[in-house]
Amino acid sequence: MKQHTARLGLLSIALGLSACTTTFQETKIDYKSAGKSQTPSLEVPPDLTQLSQDSRYTVPGGVVSAAAMQANAQAAKPTSSNTATNAIGDVRIQRDGNQHWLVVSRPADKLWEPVRDFWLENGFIFVSEDRQLGILETDWAENRAKLPQDIIRKTLGKVFDSLYSTSERDKFRTRLERESDGTTHIYVTHRGMEEVYTSSQKDNTIWQPRARDPELETEFLRRMMVKLGVSEEQAAAVAKADRAAAVTAVNGGVRMDTVNGQPVLQIDEDFDRAWRRVGVALDRTGFTVEDRDRSRGIYFVRYVDPNAKVEAKGFFSKIFSRGAEAAAPVKYQVQVKGEGSKSSVTVLNTQGQPETSANAQRIIRVITDDLK
Predict the structure, then answer these.
(1) What pLDDT is stored for residue 27 in this prediction?
(2) Helix/strand/coil percent split, the chain, to 5
(3) C-beta separation of 258 from 360 below 8 A
(4) 256: helix, coil or strand?
(5) φ and ψ at 281, to 5 degrees?
(6) What domain count does the chain have?
(7) Which residues of the chain have pLDDT under 70?
(8) Distance in angstroms (rounded) separating the CA atoms of residues 363 and 372
(9) Whether 213 and 357 share a structural domain
(10) What is the pLDDT of residues 144-159, one digit of tens each?
(11) Distance in Å from the first CA to the final CA of the chain
(12) Which residues fall in a coiled-coil region (predicted)?
């Protein structure tokens, strides 16, 4: 429930203290999970914990529209692949179409600890860490900066902090990808949930996916630049120029098709861009990527059929179930093949054979919807 009876009583008393207008600080970030420990947070609804370990996915909406610009506010010239690069020292923020990420001229092994510390310092704990694969996934956390900052909040909130909730939770996945030129690409993807009433009486609530926030992704990339050695002034200038640029990014078209009975995602882009976009889509939609082989264009993923029979009732119960009653994940290979300026994405089984099942159809559909 969003509010309990006892809480409402206390809030009723507090309302008499002030008639001040409530204001929100939506541009700030102040996440609260479980401090700096690795104990699952009691502030996070129980049915939101460990989502990634069950390999469930959701299909958040929204598109990335932010373009990162250089600190001196000079727009970088796009390359032949519409990629804009903005460097400060050995750290640069890069945009290609609707995607943005950091490129750091350091090996991933040297970046793991600073990036890991970055999330801990920002109030998160982790539910998944894989140093070899370069994956960090945070627990669900609440952005306390979105809480009302009126006199009631300032007085009672310090004592009864749990009285207040934004009814939103966020989690982030960070992927460090090693490149052949010795650099490391760092991707940050956001997933969000919100608590909504299920009836007009407002006597019950459920958690459901909400649109991802590309501005949050960009802001955390900017802050990560500071952690990696860029000054606050330079990082702030990047963000300011980014907002002023208002670049409309364009990605190549995507569409679903069927070839010899197998579902296929067709992308009007070369392999490099298609590989990058599919990887981000898998991160964003919650697939568990166990390994990847760029030379073969394969992501090794775990998938759970949302229609599989489990003891828990309801779609979201299946998504958030954590016990032995949950359906076992199935392993697949998501393969990206490039042919000149076009690429295709298919699903293979563990033996590397074409997969034509309903699960393959769903996987391709999820990736397609995210890339549109």
Answers:
(1) 47
(2) 30, 30, 45
(3) no
(4) strand
(5) -60, -40
(6) 2
(7) 1-27, 33-87, 97-98, 147-165, 239, 241-252, 306-327
(8) 15
(9) no
(10) 777 665 555 455 555 4
(11) 35
(12) none
Residues 265, 128, single domain; the answer is: no
| Contacts (Cβ under 8 Å, ≥6 apart) of 346 | 262, 263, 264, 265, 334, 335, 337, 354, 355, 360, 364
With CA atoms as reference, report the closest residue to 221 among 361, 83, 54, 94.
Answer: 94
175's tokens: 């992927």
The DSSP annotation for 149-217 comes to: -SHHHHHHTTT-GGG---SEEEEEEEEEEE-TTS-EEEEEEEEEEEEEESSTT---EEEEEE---HHHH
Do 245 and 284 share a structural domain?
A: no
Domain of residue 330, CATH code: 3.30.310.170
* pLDDT in the model for residue 242: 61
Dihedral over alpha carbons 336, 337, 343, 348 (to 10 degrees): -50
Look up residue 346 and give its two tokens.
């298919």
The token pair at 129 is 């860490």
Residue 154 is predicted with a pLDDT of 54
User: For 87-173, where are the alpha helices, taking DSSP H only?
Assistant: 108-121, 151-156
What six digits make up the tokens of 249? 């990014």
Which residue type sits at 280? V
C-alpha of 177 from chain center: 16
- For residue 298, what are the domain limits? 251-372
Cβ–Cβ < 8 Å for 1, 204: yes
Do 255 and 245 lie in one domain? The reply is: no
What is the rounded distance in angstroms from the CA atom of residue 157 to the CA atom of residue 148? 10
Q: 191 phi and psi, to 5 degrees?
A: -135, 140
Query: Any idea which residue has 């980014």 for tokens?
Result: 242
Written as one string, the DSSP assignment of 295-359 is TTTEEEEEE--TTS--SS-SHHHHHH--STTSPPPEEEEEEEEEETTEEEEEEE-TTS-B--SHH
3-class DSSP state of 254: strand
Look up residue 137 and give its amino acid: E
Same domain for 175 and 271? no
- Closest-CA residue to 168 (of 184, 191, 149): 191
